[in-house]
Each structure stands twice: as C-alpha cells, then as structure tokens.
Amino acid sequence: MHSPDALRADGTVSSLRTYRYVRVSLVAAVLFLGIGVTWHLATLGPLRSISAAYYTPVRSIFVGSLFAVAVGLVVLAGRSLRRTLLVIAGFTAPVIALVPAPVPSDELELLTGTGCPAGVARCVAPGTADAIAVGILAYLVVAAAALVASLAFLAVDRALDRGAWLRAGGAAVLLTALAVFSTTPVFADLGHYAAAALFFLLIAAVAGIHAHAVRSQGVRGPGSLRAYSLAYSALAALLAAVDAAAIVLLLTGRASAVFGEQWLLIVEAVALALFTAFWILQTVENWRDPDAAAH
C-alpha cells in the first residue's frame, strides 16, 4: 500500500490517476454498448445478437465501444504473461468491430431491407466486402506501426530484452496470420466469430492465471486472498464455459430451434457481463497500485 504522500513524492500521482481513468473508461465503453443495444430493443425491436447491431443505427456505438475496449487493454500493457494476453485481446477487439457477423437472411432483410442472395441462409450484408477490406488493411498497418513503435520506445528506455523480442515476434506472427486469413473466402463468414471466441478465451485465461497468482503473490486491494482467488476462478470457468457453449451452438446450427431466436443475444450479454465483472474486480484490486502493469 502506498500513501498519497509517498505517491506525490515519487511523482506517480498523475500516472496512477491516468491508470484509474483508463480502467474506468473500459467499463464505461461496455456500458455505452449496453445502452445502445437496450435502446434498440426498446424502440426498434428485437435483435438476435449484439453482433447484429452492426446492421442497425447502433453501429457507431458498437464499433466505437469495441475500439475503446481495445485501446484500454493495449494501454494497460505490462511485462507479465497476464498483461501480454490482455494486449492480444486488445488487438483482437477491433477485428470483432470491423468484420460484421453473418446473420440469417430473414433477420438481415428485417434490419437492412436486403436479405442474402438466393439459396444462402446466412451472410453479411451485400456491399460490406469493401468496408471489411479497407478496415482490416488500415488495422494491420496501424497495428504493425504500433508494434514497431513499442520496440522503439523500449530501445530508448534500454528495456529491449529477450522477452520483449519474443512478445514482438509473437505479435508479428499473429498479425501475419490475420493478414493471410483476411484474404481467404471464408474470412467474411468466420472472422467475427473467430475473433470474439479468441477474445473471451484470452480473458478467461487471464482470470484463471490471476486466480493462481493471487494465492502465491497476495492481493493489493481490499478483501481476502481467498475471496479474490475464488472470484477469479469462478469468472475464468464461467467465461470459458460460455465461450465454448457459444462455439458449439453456432457450429451445430440448431440452437435457435432449441433455445429460441435470441439465444446468441443472451450468450453475448452474459459473456460481456462476465468480462465487466472481471474488469471491475481487477480495478478494485489494483486501485492503489502505482505500477499495476508490472503484475
């Protein structure tokens, strides 16, 4: 625990305040999205998924919220495995925003006035191919530039060690894989769901790793070590279970017949609620830590 006077003495008050604002703004971004989707449900009618908001007046909120989450996760980059996984999740979020989810033809027609081509049961909206292409191109260029800049900053700080090179190499491999994947015919159909599944899997992994870490390293926030460990373990298990269930149900293609047309909306809402709970718990634990990015 650091006292306010100690924080002022070593010049970390401003950085700690910024760190807190970034953490709180990430929760605000999820709330922003929730308000937009709730507005659509209350005024324009049902949605079968949160992802379908891309095709509605809520699109700007949907895309903006995901980019805000991405920036928050990347800004909070650190040296540990947990922070590295959060950064990868941050780089995944823009793909969720830029690549729309394919939706059933009848829903697409209801939302946009145009359904899928004849004989196609599920698709992205006609004419979105160019938007996907330019969005992913811009994203890859900016992500690559950010990667190079991060290496340059580390070099200036004389912190460019073997671990930094390994993390940068891993990021380069992932960006290259995305670039190749984006040129394939199946990218428009699978890109959104693949990115979303990876995002929540990474968050589940971070929660699981942190549940183990608090038992060996202790906690820095209010509350008992046991409570934090149990909470992180539960969040990790629930996130992984929800993620796996969504993947299986999407692959079977029969979820709507069994659970109703809005099953995916409910699953996505639960996943976002679990992510928000995880983030709030992390924020409470690290509220007074001036160097939380090191953990």
TrEMBL record:
It comes from the Bacteria. The chain crosses the membrane at residues 21-41, 61-78, 85-103, 136-156, 168-187, 193-213, 225-251, 263-281. The keyword Transmembrane applies. The keyword Transmembrane helix applies. Keywords: Membrane, Transmembrane, Transmembrane helix. This is DUF998 domain-containing protein.
